[in-house]
Specification:
The complex is a heterodimer of chains A (about 270) and B (about 750).
Chain A (H helix, E strand, L loop, with lengths): L1 H8 L2 H13 L4 E2 L3 E2 L25 E4 L15 H13 L9 E4 L10 E5 L8 H13 L2 E7 L1 H15 L6 E2 L24 H4 L11 E6 L5 E7 L3 H6 L8 H18 L3
Parallel strand pairs in A: 3-4, 3-5, 5-6, 6-9
Antiparallel strand pairs in A: 1-2, 7-8, 8-9
Chain B lengths: L1 H5 L3 H6 L1 E4 L5 H21 L9 H20 L2 E8 L5 E7 L10 H9 L2 H9 L1 E7 L3 E3 L15 H11 L5 E8 L10 H9 L4 E5 L8 E8 L3 E3 L3 E11 L5 E8 L2 E9 L7 E8 L4 E9 L12 E9 L3 E7 L4 H10 L5 E10 L2 E5 L15 H4 L4 E4 L9 H12 L4 E5 L15 H4 L2 E2 L7 E2 L4 E4 L1 H5 L9 H9 L7 E2 L3 E2 L4 E8 L3 E11 L2 E6 L6 H4 L7 H15 L5 E4 L4 E3 L3 E8 L11 E7 L5 E8 L6 E7 L4 E11 L2 E13 L12 H11 L3 E2 L7 H6 L6 E7 L4 H20 L4
Parallel strand pairs in B: 3-4, 3-6, 6-7, 7-37, 9-15, 16-17, 16-19, 19-20, 20-28, 30-36
Antiparallel strand pairs in B: 1-2, 2-38, 4-5, 8-10, 10-13, 11-12, 11-14, 14-15, 17-18, 21-25, 22-24, 23-26, 26-27, 27-28, 29-31, 31-34, 32-33, 32-35, 33-34, 35-36
The chains are: A alpha/beta (about 270), B alpha/beta (about 750).
Chain lengths: ~270, ~750
């Protein structure tokens, strides 16, 4: 994402220092172990006023993964996109959604409390073997992983380097239009590429060689989707910029609907 | 001794009534006693000496007055009036047990023969016309005591008595003498036979043979489990045991289906003669008829090893049961319940989920039309399901009609209903109002804000430990350990206290709040209801090893509990699933229409499949009294397991079908109850006005049996004035009074 490159170039050192501080002094700890981490794009994003520390049925659980680069790619769009989607889930469905997200690590079992997990920019992730095993176990138990914001051939290959260790024996398949995942709340037979924020500067809906959106997944033994891959699109940005007048509404609308359908699918299948 | 004092045997007093045989009126007796007592009081007080102080005059007056009253009482000629059979005008039926149990080593049949030739029975023959019958599965005339061979394979006392009473319906029967060990194997004396004996006032005098218990034996006395169940479901069998001589010994119970061992369990034997009931759980297996044999391994020195096993027949049904799950919001509990039961082919979970305010997401529907308009609004549509689960959906979401339909679903249709916890469930969802508060097994707290997203730790109650619903492991101890190892629940809800009659199966420990009810059940009408006060059991799936099936098993058990006893429109049954040495079987079917109201205009037939595959069809007729009940009878010609496929139609409409199984066993029943069942004989005698006798005490039988109102009888009066007790009483009163007077210086 072009816009992010500018952001990284300037405060890289600050991010490193912030990350180190986060380890030594783990930031602001809220009830129920809610914790805000310094992000690549946002370091002091305000908490929503409705957040009172309450638990909820569903929480936007974002995976904190190790990356092939030195800075924390898992924090891309964080926490703005997470909270925008959480608000949309509350408004559009009857799901009891927590207003704030929950970053989760694959290094402990705590993430098992969150059957729905999300990972961004997985074209840069680099899971350890132990993390792959935990993620596989989580998904086979009934968990659901949504990955997003990775583009083109190279990022797909990097993504698969870890994903193929999670499920060495399960193929990645195209998800057809008539799959239930596109019809739980909204009928999304007609989808289009959802670009990232760079669209506002370049007018291009694609990045690298990712010209066409790809809706892929990995199914369990009963044909249910365990891993939903949003390749060559950036739903995270469509959520993040849902309140940005410069970002076209039609992309945010589709991004939100896909988020709603995927989540309801995860909670029903 | 008592007979010497009172002049007559006690039997006379018990069967007769007391009378005063004098022509003088009773009021005169009372007046004279009162006058005499008054005169004595005046006499004693007026002649009192200095030593007569305090209560002494009163005591002397009591002695004197009692003596006076006794003498006056005797003048009024007290007597016992009793109905007495007229000699040689009445019949006495002698029913002699000739079953195989009488041929035991203790030679009961020999004792019977000797007794029939004893002076007592000869005296009986002189007083009455004696008709002899030999008894087995029925009663047959017996010509000679020597014809008794102890060869009949069954003892049906009720059938024999009923037959004797029927054959002598027009004759003056003064009494029945039953010679037996009481080892009845038809299930006891039925009410109809007892009523007929009482109506004709025929006393049954029972003479018991054989020891009342063996010295060393283990016997299976009973075996109970459902006549039908779902495929691959856990079945809890209750095994009745009784032993003598092996108290405290460990024995192994084994459940078998043919050569396959289904379950085993070690049990410690209770004390001698104690009725012991032991549960054992086994898996019903695949669809079909199961001949379930439960056996206890024979112990060294047992007198009878043939009574160590019992066989019952069970029908395992694999037809899927449909359960409707109504959920008001997407929740993890919804998803994981669906996943838990999806591999159970006997359950079909049909669900409707309110994803948004105006959208319903359906899963598991049979076709595109099912539930397309939301929750069923017609009774016929709702009653197609066997059970209903209500999740986090407000009570007000249901219309008044739908709410009443849910009540009828449980009450009339006999369905299962489960309430789950949730932010729009139970008290927070407005379920503390009719009709839902009637259906709940708990009294909900009258407040909102009862749902909490805090940890709660589940634990079984004593009832839960014994319940199949909570059995996630066949072994009770392992089951307890697995419950203790379950992860905490993600949330919980306050549900108040269980209602009287409800069963609390599980509780939950909540930090800072103590123990709260978690899982409660109760029966309501023809159905059953349950409440599970959480929506957080999904953590049992997510936080345990992948191979752990606790969550799946719990929810399959829960849904099976909801549907297993839910009746279909046709419900068939038979009073005796095992026919011992007699093929007569009664079939009963209860037929209801699509709204589950009883219907009497159906055509009901039973297609009976014999063990050899031969088929026969029997029509069932409407019962004259009970609407919707159809009955029929048939005779199973050979031993083995039979299947009766009962179908009901009304015109062209198929109302439904049900399957009932039964088994005929020949020559097995007499291996059981080999010792004397004195309780049965005593009760039979007492309930008919007869008496239980030991063989050595029957010399008085001819005299006792004569005091009966059953046949042609006259009333006889037996004077009491000359009974020795009267004389002794008068002497005691007189001498007692005199001795006291001497002691106190009154004379």
């Amino acid at each position: 994402m072009h816009f992010r490159g500018v952001v990284f170039a300037v405060p890289a050192a600050l991010v490193l220092v912030s990350s180190l501080l986060a380890v030594q002094r783990p930031g602001q700890v809220y009830p129920d172990h809610f914790q805000v981490y310094p992000g690549v794009e946002y370091t002091n994003f305000p908490l929503p006023p409705e957040w009172r520390g309450q638990n909820a049925e569903w929480t936007f659980a974002r995976i904190m993964y190790p990356a092939v680069v030195w800075y924390p790619r898992w924090t891309m769009d964080y926490p703005r996109s997470d909270r925008h989607l959480s608000a949309a889930i509350s408004r559009l469905t009857r799901i009891d959604a927590r207003p704030v997200e929950q970053p989760v690590s694959l290094d402990t079992d705590a993430f098992r409390n969150f059957p729905w997990v999300y990972a961004v920019e997985v074209g840069y992730w680099n899971l350890t073997d132990a993390e792959c095993a935990r993620l596989r176990d989580h998904l086979l138990h009934g968990g659901f992983l949504m990955v997003d914001d990775f583009h083109g051939t190279r990022e797909w290959e990097i993504f698969m380097q870890s994903m193929s260790r999670v499920f060495p024996d399960r193929p990645v398949v195209e998800i057809p239009d008539d799959d239930p995942i596109f019809h739980t709340v909204y009928d999304l037979d007609h989808r289009y590429q959802v670009p990232g924020a760079q669209f506002m500067e370049t007018g291009k809906t694609y990045e690298h060689d990712g010209y066409e959106p790809e809706w892929r997944g990995i199914r369990d033994d009963k044909g249910r989707i365990m891993v939903a891959m949003c390749h060559n699109m950036d739903l995270g940005d469509s959520w993040e910029h849902a309140d940005n007048p410069q970002y076209p509404e039609k992309f945010s609308a589709l991004g939100m609907r896909i988020g709603v359908d995927y989540l309801v699918y995860a909670m029903t299948h | 001794m008592s007979e010497f004092l009172f002049k007559y045997p006690w039997a006379l007093f018990s069967k007769g009534s007391f009378v005063l045989d004098s022509h003088w009126p009773v009021w005169l007796l009372v007046s004279l006693i009162a006058a005499g007592a008054g005169a004595l009081a005046w006499f004693i007080l007026s002649r009192a000496r200095p030593g007569m102080r305090g209560l002494r005059p009163a005591i002397l007056w009591l002695f004197d007055s009692s003596l006076l009253a006794l003498l006056l009482f005797l003048l009024w000629d007290p007597a016992i009036s009793v109905a007495t059979l007229r000699q040689q005008e009445n019949i006495v039926a002698v029913v002699v047990d000739d079953s195989r149990s009488m041929g035991q080593a203790d030679d009961r049949v020999g004792q019977e023969r000797r007794l029939l030739e004893s002076p007592a029975f000869k005296a009986l023959g002189k007083k009455f016309q004696v008709r002899m019958y030999r008894m087995g599965a029925s009663a047959e005339p017996l010509g000679n005591a020597a014809d008794l061979k102890a060869r009949d394979g069954a003892t049906h006392i009720a059938a024999a008595l009923e037959q004797v009473v029927r054959q002598t319906a027009t004759l003056p029967v003064g009494g029945i003498v039953l010679l037996s060990d009481g080892a009845d194997n038809s299930g006891g004396i039925d009410l109809d036979t007892m009523n007929e004996l009482r109506r004709r006032r025929i006393p049954v005098h029972a003479i018991g043979f054989g020891p009342e218990h063996p010295s060393q034996d283990v016997e299976l006395t009973d075996l109970q489990f459902p006549a039908s169940t779902l495929a691959n479901s856990r079945v809890r069998a209750l095994v009745g045991l009784r032993q003598f001589g092996f108290a405290g010994r460990q024995v192994k119970l084994t459940v078998r289906d043919g050569e396959t061992t289904l379950a085993t369990r070690e049990v410690a034997l209770a004390g001698d003669g104690a009725d012991q009931s032991e549960p054992i759980v086994f898996n019903a297996g695949a669809e079909g008829v199961r001949n379930v044999e439960i056996a206890v391994q024979p112990l060294g020195g047992e007198q009878n090893a043939a009574n160590n096993k019992l066989t019952r027949v069970m029908y395992v049904d694999a037809a899927p049961r449909r359960v409707l799950f109504v959920e008001g919001e997407p929740r993890w509990e919804y998803k994981f319940i669906r996943r838990a039961v999806e591999d159970d082919k006997t359950l079909q979970l049909v669900s409707m989920l309110r994803t948004t305010e105006n959208k319903i997401y359906r899963q598991g529907v049979a076709n595109a039309d099912e539930l397309k308009d939301g929750f069923p609004s017609r009774v016929e549509d709702l009653f197609e399901y066997k059970a209903l689960i209500i999740g986090s959906v407000e009570a007000g979401w249901f219309t008044t009609t739908q709410a009443e339909m849910i009540r009828q679903f449980v009450d009339r249709r006999g369905g299962g209903l489960l309430f789950l916890g949730g932010r729009w469930a139970l008290a927070d969802g407005g379920y503390d109002r009719p009709p839902f508060n009637d259906l709940l097994p708990v009294n909900l707290p009258p407040k909102h804000g009862t749902f909490f997203r805090d940890p709660a730790y589940p634990q079984l109650t004593p009832a839960g430990r014994d319940s199949l619903l909570c059995r996630i492991d066949d072994d009770p101890d392992h089951n307890m350990q697995r419950w203790k190892a379950l992860p905490y629940l993600a949330n919980y809800q306050e549900i108040g206290q269980t209602k009287p009659g409800a069963t609390l199966l599980a509780q939950m420990q909540v930090d800072g709040r103590g123990t709260l009810p978690l899982l409660a059940t109760e029966n309501y009408g023809r159905g059953r209801t349950a409440v599970f006060a959480t929506a957080g059991s999904w953590r049992w799936q997510m936080l345990q090893p992948l191979a752990d099936m606790s969550h799946e098993i719990f929810w399959r058990q829960m849904l099976r509990w909801l549907v297993t006893e839910t009746p279909s429109r046709v419900t068939a049954s038979t009073p005796h699933a095992v026919l011992y040495d007699d093929g007569a079987v009664k079939l009963r079917a209860e037929v209801r229409d699509t709204t589950y109201l009883p219907t009497s205009d159906a055509q009901v037939s039973a297609r009976i499949i014999a063990p050899d595959g031969h088929e026969e069809t029997v029509d069932l007729r409407p019962d004259a009294i009970q609407t919707g009940v159809y009955t029929g009878e048939w005779n199973a010609p050979k031993p083995g397991s039979y299947i009766a496929d009962i179908t009901a139609r009304r015109g062209q409409q198929d109302l439904g079908k049900d399957v009932v199984t039964f088994r005929r066993e020949d020559g097995v029943a007499e291996n059981f109850h080999l010792y004397q069942n004195r309780d049965l004989l005593e009760k039979l005698a007492a309930d008919t006005g007869g008496k239980y006798w030991k063989p050595a005490e029957v010399s008085r039988l001819p005299e006792d049996i004569a005091w009966s109102e059953a046949g042609i009888s006259v009333r006889e009066t037996h004077d009491l004035w000359d009974a020795p007790i009267m004389f002794l009483l008068a002497l005691a009163l007189r001498s007692g009074g005199w001795l006291l007077r001497r002691r106190w210086g009154a004379v």
